[in-house]
Sequence to fold (528 residues):
Amino acid sequence: MHLVAKRGQGKLALLAAVAAGAVLVACGGGGGGGSASVQPPAPPPPVAVNGPAWLGFGGSSQHAATSQIATQDLIRIRWRTPVDLAPQYSPQGYLLVHYGSPAITSKNTVLVPVKRNATGGYTIEAHAGADGSLLWSMASDWIMPPHRWSPSFNVTLTATNRVYAAGSGGRVLYRDDADSASSTNKSIAFYGDTSYSANKATYDATVFVNTPITADSAGNIYFGFTALAGAPGGLKGGIARISADGTASFAAATTLTQDSNINKAAMNSAPALSTDEKTVYVAVNGDNGTKGYLLALDAATLVLKAKVLLLDPQTQVPASVSDDGTASPTIGTDGDVFFGVLESTYAQHNARGWLLHFDATLAQSKTPGSFGWDDTASIVPASMVPGYAGSSKYLIMTKYNNYGRAGSGDSRNKVAVLDPNGTQADTITPAVTVMKEVQTVLGLTPDPSFPGGVVEWCINTAAVDPFTKSILVNSEDGFLYRWDMATNKLTQSVQLTSGLGESYTPTAVGADGTVYAINNAVLFAVGK
Fold:
């Protein structure tokens, strides 16, 4: 989610509690009949689909979230399924749970991570994209790492249609042919299956996969993990790699950074791969989340190529890399790297944070964006925006909330398309130069607790559709919207729920162009 969870006076209290380091405790029908002699026509058989796969969080290993197929018009909810069978709401009514993104195969099987009980208990469900019918399910024994806001449990596809998900003790679970109900479930531990078998209880209690899994085109996977005191062999948190043939390696965050305060991968932050897949970028931090580094590692060996301490552009002191967020690196088509952080002093930038921007080597710090909190930037081909006259080949789409009662925030919450190579003075902190706003659009639903304000946008990664020149964005008002780049208007919408304050959620696109969004612990399939 966001730091500002919902409209109302409770929002400020929540913000203050997080800033102070307080622990937040997440505490259809129908009928009718018909003539016996007149039967309704049988539904037509599902149409076979062979389209582009959506591999997991951010759609690709660069987290560009750019669809390879035109999305269907947002006309109706075609089907829905819960992603949490026991959602735990805070005393203020907020849903402080990060839900994993669906992954969708090229044959349109939708892989849905599902939380089964109050404290965890996860399953991957495979649903037919045509109608949502359940095809198969796979239980996971993954245990949540220590947290305040419940971390995300994710599912990832490889180019060969193998599906991966986190298991207990730092293991990963997998099965081949994600479209098949008869595939065998398997698991692998990056530190060795023999070691896990010999000390299962201790590994389960001390070692946790704590990021989404990212796969390259050869089927090699990358993920972050955390290890508590007492982990077998003195294992320290960091980054792991498992090749398609099961060969594994890992590197400790403390060793990579040479900083004793940095001991794990940042929670929920998926590793990203360069476009040539030779470099893997990963965010690491410490237990308190007060500072962190972005690392560039050799994708084959996990040897450090470069590192950068993540600094607040205004104060030039370490920014906050919070474990309450889900920001992951995004890689531009030119190799530039984008990563969202919180400001060094809470609410100094209205709790918006900053989108830090580096070249591929991390040696050059470039112009930041004016929003970074709990958001992974999406890549927008410049040709999608007819009015754009700059020189950039691609633009950056981010959430652009301006949280009411956080600093000088006015609750005029927007989404934005930014020019990574254009500049302007920041509208909140004019002394800071930020990426130029190309287009922004304000939400539609008034915030009753803040005159002139509107309800927050509720996305941590938004799907971009170059074919219709639009972006699919979810709002806390309970609606899924299409943001049209040609008109700069919200041209289509479907109401999913009555709306609530919740952790930020992803949007995704299926192999047949169906749009997927999560609201109030339910995944909705929206289309024509």
